[in-house]
């Protein structure tokens, strides 16, 4: 007795009872017959089927050669002949097991498995509550069972290699690899195919009728494409007949898709890139990012895309990725845009041509540990981001930089070499700086007087160390439209700089003061210098810092510019302690740590005639002269300054912290010692200045003040600069000390610069720990693609923060007033529910009374869909966009969008 396909499962105990009676009545005559013959066949166990009624967790193997043999063989010759004439039906053993029972049929051609049944054949694995294995037809049938609540459990799960699906019932033929499956859900790439009745027509192909295709992973999908008929080729493609959208079980018959094609290959493949569409007031209707993707090979690909607008604007884009495993990987982009905002014949008609190039390249760390090559190129014309940026981040970006770098470490030596090609640009003033190339050769610190085999403590002279850094640069800064017209000899700046710091042995004085002597030598090699000659009534159109009556001649050739200095520095730590008089005070002590440092340095007068760095030149008809630098504008700076310098520098750092009883500690047991915590009152308060012993006036440098502290979890930073000298009516400093001329707080010095900044963040406690875990999961396991800042965190109900900044710039002349700027930035997020999130970001200039870039965003998580509303209420970027779209990249064009572009504002 067996289960008919599609019938209800019989009770296991009833089946067992009936089969035992049947086996008893049928086997008894066979035993009698076997006793009457001299040769009897093997018993039923030769078929590989155990007739024991109940065998928990028993695994048996069906041997292919025995499956085709008869149970009653007249002689060995006929058996061998039949085995040779008839090929095995099954190519490999079939393993099966079950938890409750394994029952074989009387003819040995069927096996019935109950409860967590499992059948394995080659790479095919089938599990279900009930499995019926028919060895004659080579078919297997499987189904689940309903539990006490009516829920179907232990449903058939079919695995074939990497393919896997679950269904309610399944019938499959091992030989033809065909089958009938009901209520199946298969995962195809990023999507899922649901079908009530599916026919498996080959190893990798299915056909179905009235199915569903969706990227929603819910058992009952929130949306799907209703497929009237379809063919699914696993790991290849899905081809459908007429289909229509169903959203939240509501069918949308219009528009209907006459046919559909969904690529489903696990590897990339070539194909057409569907453009997005929309409208702008200035550029008209558009199709964006349409084109073709070419999967060239496993090493690189290529995408060619374009934009077209109804009013004449257009763009083309090229993108490629490349990768060689264990060697390198990277990507390259080129974009060209032609924007047309007016009609031909209009006085303002001026087509704008813009382009951008990005390139990134990185080398695998395993490729070569001593040699690396990398590239990060981001170059564009100055107006590209302003005219073509889609995101606010790109629009607000005014600085760009690029670097192509090669580095080599010479193994088992202290030497390193690096070569860089650098670029930086400012889109605000269209300035561009190129360094082609910049090369650095360095030697790590070596100790030439140390013994190779050391014994005992280091001698003082063995601490003598020296290192070297050499740098070559060839650079130019100009407007981007002029840079190609510049002369290499006249406009490019180049040179080589050598730096040799020498580390002299340090020593301690009085066991607490550490002294460190030093000597520093710098040398610059330039390949040109200038000569200056006064010409009466000359008109040489010189730069702003030179009179037009001075002729400037360029003299080429190697020009050495060197300088050196001596120094001696000392530092120590001083501690102070305050203990409260009241023993019941929560405060147990306040510690003050001071770190004074002192240094003295000497540099000769490099303005002396013997160095040849400065030339005294007549500048007007009165005979007045000026000293002009013959290396003015050098890439590493001009000549060393005129006048000797013997400076004493002083700085003082302060740290103040308090030790107090921790009243918030609720884990303290009775009898245990009280627990304490440290509270920082002042993280750092520093003062620094210097005094030139050799200068004839203005010896004292400005006093720099820096402070940092934390109040109630708020970080506060402040600073200022006090100038000790007065100024005249023209704003020039004069040798008069402020404390002799002013009164009150003004005696401290002339405040030339001050700043104050702090920020606060608030967030609800709910979901905070879960949010931190999610953040770690995202960063460590990369469970989400792309830039993580674009993902909303729906676990924290709300958070809010603001930043305040105050800056003061003192007056240059006594008649002027100082300038004050104050800005405040506000940001916040609010999760109305687990699915709704509102966020905003703005900045406000308090002095100007104006808002800067401001955004409001509303996001709704719709499980497999997402909704976003972005609003910029004012400013040049004033715009809004409303989008509902499927999350899957495969269905990225399945969306509803309404927007007003910021391009409509000009």
UniProtKB/TrEMBL annotation:
<dbReference type="GO" id="GO:0009279">
    <property type="term" value="C:cell outer membrane"/>
</dbReference>
<dbReference type="Pfam" id="PF19838">
    <property type="entry name" value="LptD_2"/>
</dbReference>
<protein>
    <submittedName>
        <fullName>LPS-assembly protein LptD</fullName>
    </submittedName>
</protein>
<dbReference type="InterPro" id="IPR045659">
    <property type="entry name" value="LptD_2"/>
</dbReference>
<dbReference type="GO" id="GO:1990351">
    <property type="term" value="C:transporter complex"/>
</dbReference>
<feature type="domain" description="LPS-assembly protein LptD central">
    <location>
        <begin position="238"/>
        <end position="725"/>
    </location>
</feature>
<dbReference type="InterPro" id="IPR050218">
    <property type="entry name" value="LptD"/>
</dbReference>
């Amino acid at each position: 007795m067996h289960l008919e396909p599609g019938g209800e499962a019989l009770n296991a105990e009833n089946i067992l009872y009936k089969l035992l009676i049947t086996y008893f009545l049928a086997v008894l005559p066979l035993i009698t017959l076997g006793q009457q013959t001299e040769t009897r066949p093997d018993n039923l166990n030769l078929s590989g089927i155990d007739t024991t009624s109940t065998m928990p967790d028993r695994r048996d193997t069906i041997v292919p050669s025995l499956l085709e043999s008869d149970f009653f063989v007249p002689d060995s010759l006929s058996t061998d002949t039949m085995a040779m004439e008839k090929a095995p039906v099954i190519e490999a053993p079939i393993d099966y097991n079950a938890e409750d029972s394994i029952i074989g049929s009387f003819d040995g051609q069927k096996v019935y498995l109950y409860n967590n049944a499992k059948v394995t054949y080659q790479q095919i694995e089938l599990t279900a509550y009930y499995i019926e294995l028919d060895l004659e037809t080579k078919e297997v049938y499987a189904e689940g069972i309903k539990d006490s609540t009516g829920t179907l459990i232990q449903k058939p799960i079919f695995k074939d290699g990497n393919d896997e699906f679950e269904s309610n019932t399944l019938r499959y033929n091992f030989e033809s690899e065909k089958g009938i499956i009901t209520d199946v859900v298969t995962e195809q790439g990023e999507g899922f195919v649901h079908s009530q009745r599916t026919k498996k027509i080959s190893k990798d192909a299915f056909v179905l009728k009235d199915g569903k295709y969706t990227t929603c992973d819910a058992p009952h999908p929130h949306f799907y494409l209703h497929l009237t008929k379809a063919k699914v080729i696993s790991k290849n493609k899905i081809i459908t007949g007429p289909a229509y959208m169903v959203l939240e079980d509501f069918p949308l018959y219009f528009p209907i898709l006459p046919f559909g094609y969904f690529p489903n290959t696990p590897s990339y493949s070539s194909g057409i890139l569907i453009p997005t569409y929309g409208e702008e007031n200035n550029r008209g209707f558009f199709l964006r990012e349409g084109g073709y993707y070419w999967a060239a090979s496993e090493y690189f690909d290529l995408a060619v895309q374009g934009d077209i607008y109804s009013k004449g604007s257009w763009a083309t884009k090229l993108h490629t990725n490349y990768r060689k495993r264990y060697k390198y990987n990277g990507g390259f982009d080129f974009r060209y845009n032609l924007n047309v905002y007016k009609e031909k014949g209009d006085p303002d008609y001026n087509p704008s041509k813009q382009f951008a190039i990005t390139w990134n390249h990185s080398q695998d760390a395993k490729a070569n540990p001593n040699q690396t090559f990398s590239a990060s190129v981001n170059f564009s014309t100055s107006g590209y981001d302003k005219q073509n940026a889609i995101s606010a981040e790109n629009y607000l970006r005014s600085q760009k930089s690029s670097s192509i770098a090669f580095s080599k470490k010479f193994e088992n030596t202290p030497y390193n070499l690096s070569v860089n090609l650098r670029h930086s640009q400012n889109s605000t003033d269209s300035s561009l700086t190129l360094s082609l190339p910049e090369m650095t050769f360095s030697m790590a610190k070596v100790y030439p007087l140390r013994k190779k085999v050391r014994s005992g403590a280091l001698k003082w002279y063995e601490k003598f160390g020296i290192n070297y850094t050499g740098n070559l640069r060839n650079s130019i800064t100009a407007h981007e439209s002029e840079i190609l017209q510049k002369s290499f000899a006249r406009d490019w700046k180049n040179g080589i700089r050598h730096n040799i710091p020498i580390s002299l042995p340090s020593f301690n004085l009085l066991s607490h003061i550490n002294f460190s002597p030093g000597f520093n030598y710098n040398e610059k090699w330039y390949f040109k210098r200038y000569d200056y000659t006064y010409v009466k009534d000359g008109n040489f159109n010189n730069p702003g810092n030179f009179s037009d009556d001075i002729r400037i001649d360029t003299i080429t050739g190697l020009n050495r510019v060197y300088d050196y200095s001596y120094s001696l520095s000392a530092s120590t730590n001083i501690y102070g302690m305050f203990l409260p008089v009241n023993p019941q005070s929560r405060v147990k002590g306040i510690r003050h740590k001071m770190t004074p440092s002192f240094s003295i340095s000497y540099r000769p007068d490099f303005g002396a005639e013997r160095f040849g760095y400065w030339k005294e030149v007549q500048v007007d008809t009165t005979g007045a002269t000026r000293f002009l630098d013959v290396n003015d504008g050098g890439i590493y700076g001009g000549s060393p300054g005129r006048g000797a310098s013997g400076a004493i520098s002083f700085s003082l750092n302060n740290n103040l912290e308090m030790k107090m009883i921790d009243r918030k500690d609720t884990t303290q047991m009775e009898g245990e010692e009280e627990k304490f915590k440290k509270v920082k009152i002042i993280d750092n308060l520093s003062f620094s200045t210097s005094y030139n012993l050799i200068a004839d006036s203005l010896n004292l440098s400005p006093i720099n003040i820096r402070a940092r502290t934390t109040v109630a979890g708020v970080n506060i930073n402040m600073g200022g600069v006090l100038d000790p000298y007065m100024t005249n009516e023209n704003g020039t400093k004069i040798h008069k000390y402020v404390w002799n001329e002013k009164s009150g707080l003004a005696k401290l010095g002339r405040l030339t610069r001050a700043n104050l900044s702090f920020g606060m963040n608030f967030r609800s406690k709910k979901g905070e720990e879960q949010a931190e875990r999610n953040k770690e999961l995202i960063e460590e396991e990369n469970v989400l693609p792309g830039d993580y800042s674009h993902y909303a965190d729906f676990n924290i109900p709300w958070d809010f923060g603001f930043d305040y900044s105050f800056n003061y710039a003192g007056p240059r002349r006594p008649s002027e007033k100082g300038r004050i700027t104050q800005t405040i930035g506000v940001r916040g997020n609010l999760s109305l529910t687990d699915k709704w999130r509102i966020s905003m970001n703005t900045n406000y200039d308090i002095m100007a009374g104006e808002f800067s870039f401001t955004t409001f965003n509303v996001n709704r998580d719709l499980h497999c869909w997402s909704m976003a509303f972005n609003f910029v209420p004012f400013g040049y970027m004033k715009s809004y966009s409303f989008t509902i779209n499927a999350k899957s990249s495969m269905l990225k064009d399945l969306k509803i969008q309404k927007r007003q572009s910021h391009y409509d504002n000009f």
